[in-house]
Amino acid sequence: MNQAQTSPASTGTSQASPQAGPIPATGGKLASEAERLHALILQSLDDDQAQDVISIPLEGKSSIADYMVIASGRSTRQVAAMAQKLGERVKHAGFGSARIEGLPAADWVLIDAGDVVVHLFRPEVRSFYNLERMWAFGDAPPVAAGQA
User: Fold this and answer.
1) 88-99: per-residue pLDDT in tens?
2) How far apart are CA 95 and CA 93, in angstroms?
3) Residue 38 and which of 31, 44, 76, 86 are 20 to 30 A apart at CA?
4) Calpha distance 35→42 (Å, rounded)
5) Gap between the Cα atoms of 65 and 96, Å rounded
């Protein structure tokens, strides 16, 4: 894990929409499928006004996914709506059906989109479990997206 990233929501910048074509990676190369899915998820969360979005690269650390994204919603209603919309956007973009767990209570919703695993929390639940600390141990503190 190199560095964790936060969403560009507070900077007002946005990422290219996956429906607009391939998302270029740095150096002019086309992004991998995992990177395109990751960009779609970050954009979806930004569109839905998720709070405190953190992205943790897992490549080389875990075989469960290439990225873990953690975000908060202001209420159970917002967390549930973000999860449902994210699942729909992932499917419509051609990445297959994402598995969603925890939707009825919506305190902590897990979305398994294959190469990217997303955790959506209410703020109180997120601070209790503190997944960022567990997965980012020994690495540099999170930096804002675009600064990495």
Assistant:
1) 999 999 999 999
2) 6
3) 76
4) 10
5) 15
Give the pair of three-digit tokens for residue 54: 């953190």
Task: Dump pLDDT digits (tens) for 25-61.
Answer: 444 444 689 999 999 999 999 999 999 999 999 888 8
Whether pLDDT at 126 is above 50? yes
CA dihedral 58, 63, 66, 69 (to 10 degrees): -60
> Edge-to-edge strand order for the sheet containing 143-144?
99-101, 108-112, 116-121, 67-72, 51-57, 5-6, 143-144
CA 89, 81, 49, 133 torsion-angle sign = negative
